[in-house]
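A quick aside before the break. I want you to see a complete sequence-to-structure record at least once, exactly as it would be stored in a machine-readable document. Don't worry about memorizing anything.
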Amino acid sequence: MRFGISGLSRLLKPLPKRRRVVFLSRESDKPSRDFKDIKKALGQLDPSIEVRCVTKQWVAGGGLLGQIRFFPCMLQQVWAQARARVIVTDTFVPAISCGHRTNEQHVVQIWHALGAFKRFGRSTINLREGTSSAVATAQRMHEGYDTVLISAEPCRTHYAEAFGTDPRKLRVAPLPRVDHLIDTAVRVEKRKEILQSCRESKERDGSRQDADTRDKILKRWCESEGAKEKGTQIALWAPSMRKGAPGRQKQWITSKDVTALREALKRHGWTLLRSDHPVTQAQGAAPASDPLSGFTTAELMSVADAFVTDYSSAVFEAALMGLPCYFLTPKIDEFQKDCGSYLDPYQDLPGPVSKKPEETAKQIADGAATSQAAHDFAQQWVTIPPGTSPTRCADGIAHFLGDLLDQLPH
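That is the input. The structure line, written in tokens, reads:
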């Protein structure tokens, strides 16, 4: 693959470069919300800037068939970057790392997660959850970035390690999703969408298997927006991504643990809502039920009273929304060997860490974590740009990309 990309990009290298920004990703089949927000901001900044997006989800563990399915997208990505002056990515893209560019081009890595919790990239080479050194070398893993955007200054050392890059190439500019996470009006509107979806589901089939969770959400957020009823609190469980083929992913937490957490919470008058990582197959317990399946983890936070995870970076999003955060880590010792974290789970996180589901459930019921601790944590790991614009994060990145287009040699 490396030599194919290298050879094709060399042939395309002499093509004239357009005043164009191209977004490349293997994270999802559609452009992410971050990509869409930056694209919109670029259009408002300078309508003459051309924007292209080439994205397709790479399924880990897909084998030869997976590589064949991804091949057409890889060719499109090589072609797309050959004509663009600025290339933006939010994941590892071989078309970038193995490709060739001119000094008229600039590659910007905006990584798809906020903060730095679980180790990733080159930090996990030769670990079970990472990539072998042979594969990393063959694919020139995370090479070729001219600028890396990070959410806050404390992330600099971790991201420099993860991408194997000069720390001076890193620039603080949080993802556009932060604009939505800190906007109360956006949260209220998303909550209304979720409630409407639940109501429509109830009207279609009031006896469906997942009716209990749906009805508890409706009871928690009853007709008078925001009103609480005792005993109807919602805890959102969002586990971290597992690499590998479905059924062969590392089990740092089992379906038995999740079931135990759900039952223990029920005894305390809480309901557990689950939202798996978008690129991970659910293990054991059912994923978010039908009326909720179209909503992201961040969107489901708008109907939650508490957030629970093992090692997911979604904790930074929950903290920005002020949700009390809890951590269920039954096999934390194995996790540290298989992957590891940049943060000390027992010192750096905004809520209690437990190996036992029943203990986590009691901590949630007792309110052991607080919104203030979440806010303090978010303030440390996500630097929000000054100003009052509801799109200031997207606007900041758009201005940076626009300046790049003007400054690059022609």
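Two observations worth writing down. The mean pLDDT is 90. The first helix runs from residue 2 to 12. We'll return to this after the break.
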